[in-house]
Design brief:
Two copies of one chain form a homodimer.
Chain A (H helix, E strand, L loop, with lengths): L11 H27 L4 H9 L6 E2 H8 L3 H13 L3 E5 L7 E5 L1 H14 L4 H4 L3 H14 L2
Antiparallel strand pairs in A: 1-3, 2-3
Chain A binds a DNA duplex (23 and 23 nucleotides) through helix 2, helix 3 and helix 4.
Chain lengths: 145, 145
DNA sequence: TATTGTTATACTCTATAACTATA
DNA sequence: TATAGTTATAGAGTATAACAATA
């Protein structure tokens, strides 16, 4: 029998840190629906809007891959965003099978509003010292590499 | 005209830190469905399982509040978890309108498995120094207060 | 009367399978 | 043949409104 079967990789400190991250993730998960509803968006639509950067068309397939969902979902998701005038499908010049997504001006404005609301830090973050806030920025930057 | 209407509260550093957090949140949002599918759970069911701690019965209404969703969702969510033998509804002794949720032994084991997988830190976290990992633990702890 | 949870309904999200157009 | 996206279908997640049981 392999007694190491359930030994988790990672140092004790990194495990402890990630446990706290998971707490934050679930808290944020509950946070998104009400925030999205204020903008008359669903959480999934927020995710899509977050991923389409202004001036950076993205193929639908790449969106499906980043969302880790089936391509058929993206069709409906984009249908609804397009019917609201937030995004547009454009044929890709390189490969006529591919459709790329671009934000409309309305979509771009709503995206800015969304990100502005989402990235407003909670009060607890303001209670950290400036040096702690900078340490957090440095650490998170490396986590996202 | 109020030119401060769109000025975001929080120091520049805390805003920058929270922008990075939002990046992590969306990355994790895409991460959950495949992880949940391995355990034959949905993301929402994972959230519920995370919130029901073993030996700590929780009223359905409180679950709805923490999930920030309507009470009627919890009915269906719990229906499916109960039909799989993961949780049980129990009448509350204090108020007969209230039903509290408890994990079954199977549910408790699956919850442990879920949290174990979710809290396994990504490789990028292991690349931080031990002192950085400890700083992160200290900071996240205060964020969650 | 107010509150907890359920039911009925409608819409969105999601995966699977079959399809169309293009490569 | 293989790939990108769509359509059809079914099940899960979600909100609203009406309801039953209890407070």
């Amino acid at each position: 029998m392999n007694y190491n079967a359930h030994v988790k990789p990672g140092s004790p400190d990194s495990c402890e840190a990630w446990q706290l991250m998971v707490q934050l993730f679930f808290a944020q998960r509950a946070n998104l629906p009400p925030l999205a509803a204020e903008l008359e968006l669903s959480p999934a639509q927020c995710h899509v809007l977050h991923l389409i950067e202004p001036g950076r068309p993205i193929p639908m397939g790449q969106l499906a891959e980043t969302l880790a969902c089936h391509a058929s979902n993206v069709t409906g998701l984009v249908d609804r965003l397009e019917s609201r005038g937030l995004v547009r499908r454009r044929p890709s010049p390189a490969d006529r099978r591919v459709k790329v997504l671009v934000l409309t001006q309305t979509g771009s404005r709503l995206r800015t509003l969304l990100l502005d609301r989402m990235t407003t830090p909670p009060d607890t973050l303001g209670r950290l010292s400036v040096s702690e806030q900078r340490a957090l920025v440095r650490i998170l930057t490396r986590l996202l590499e």
